[in-house]
Amino acid sequence: MHPLFLWLRSFWPAPLSVSRREIWLGCLGAGLGLFGSEGLSHLALGELNPWFIAPMGASAVLLFAVPASPLAQPWSILGGNLVSALIGVLCAHTLGHGGLAAGVAGAGAIAAMFALRCLHPPGGAVALTAVLGGPAISQLGYGYALWPVAANSALLLGLALLFNNLMQRRYPHQAASQPHPHRTADRLPSARLGVSKEDLEAAVASQGQLLDISPDDLEQILTRAQLQASRRKWGDVYCRDIMSRDVIHVRPLDSVDEAWARLARHKVKALPVIRLDGTLAGIVSLHDFFVGHSAPDPRKMPVMSTARYVADIMTRKVRVARPETLMVDLVALFSDGGLHHMPVVDEQLHVVGMITQSDVVAALFKTGS
User: Fold this and answer.
1) CA distance 226 to 329
2) How far is CA 231 from the centre of its chain?
3) Could you report the per-residue pLDDT of 88-108, keeping only the tens digit for each?
4) HSE-CB of 94 using CA atoms within 13 angstroms
5) Quick one: what percent of the chain has pLDDT higher than 90?
6) CA distance 244 to 232
């Protein structure tokens, strides 16, 4: 393909991988945020001023349409708009209200935002407004930075915090971190091989230019891509193919001594607790036999529970799988989630099998070799 054609094709808009829900939320949030900002702006300036509303409209696009962007975070809008306003007013006072002042204000605002790590594209418009906004802006002097710029930015930020979190969008945006199940400083098992966070940070730094995505988000995207590739590779292996079907179990009213004896006899670490109708009631594992297992005191040795029945010590909230669950979907739960065993139930919650870490490891070895 001719290089000229490739260059021309780069002007064609790339497809947006965003859901309809996100589009509607972005529109609704921006509308509510700008409604509040316009009211405060009108109170400050005494009349509708499109030169001022324009920067807030640009901020609204970032805060409500792309709240995950590093350019849309709280320090970016507050610091970016405030420092840009101050630089704009300074340029207007020293260089007048012409093109030179506008150019210097825009360049100075960008330099300051880079230095303060608060790059926010609407800050350029805020600085330009201080120079070219007319008499209403000029009369405010340096007060323009506080009222209405800082006030409107704070109002818009407050609305963004409220709206985005009510809509279950993480804001301020931070990559969801999974706590280590053993509370150690080690990386999760899935993160010990392959591309690390440090590798991603080094790759981003090697680009030599600002990318509008954080290394944490890149790491999450890479992890999901690896999971998707694993589904393609092992997409024909299901829980029903690898689970144990002869399930050693206990009943809720079995004695604790009987449960302990079965664990020892069959050399397993957990037993599903099954009702008479075959449905799952809970699970009992080794640590359930000790007093205070839910909040152990590290200064004391645990003691055996004096409870009589399995129902008194079992864990009732149990993570389960279905026979049709893909085996690859369990890998993260067993490797990073700290699980060692998982009952398999059908649609009526009847226990039909049991899966352990060893089952998953053996399946991965067999299918990968």
Assistant:
1) 12
2) 22
3) 999 999 999 999 999 999 999
4) 9
5) 56
6) 24
What pLDDT shows up at residue 356? Answer: 94
Q: How far is CA 83 from CA 79, 113, 114, 126, in A?
A: 6, 7, 11, 9
Structure tokens at 277: 């109708």
Residue 198, pLDDT score? 83
To the question of pTM greater than 0.85 for the whole model, the response is no
Contact 159, 52 (CB under 8 A): no
Contacts 24+ apart (CB under 8 A), 190-194: 190/223, 190/331, 190/332, 190/335, 190/336, 194/226
Q: Could you tell me the CATH superfamily of domain 239-368?
A: CBS-domain (3.10.580.10)
Choose between 284 and 308: higher pLDDT.
Answer: 284
330 in helix, strand or coil? Answer: helix
The CA–CA distances, whole Å, from 85 to 77, 169, 190, 323, 337 equal: 12, 29, 46, 61, 48
pLDDT of residue 212: 84
pLDDT of residue 175: 64
Tell me how far apart the alpha carbons of residues 83 and 326 are, in angstroms, rounded to a whole number.
Answer: 52
213, 257, 223, 201: which is closest to 73 by C-alpha?
213
Beta strand pairing status for 341-345 and 280-285?
unpaired
As given in the structure block, the two tokens for residue 332 are 């993260």
pLDDT value for 117: 96
**E-state strands within the chain:** 270-274, 280-285, 341-345, 351-356
Domains in the chain: boundaries: 18-166, 199-234, 239-368
Beta strands (DSSP E) in 57-175 are none
pLDDT in tens, 337-350: 889 999 999 999 99
8 Å CB contact between 355 and 342:
yes
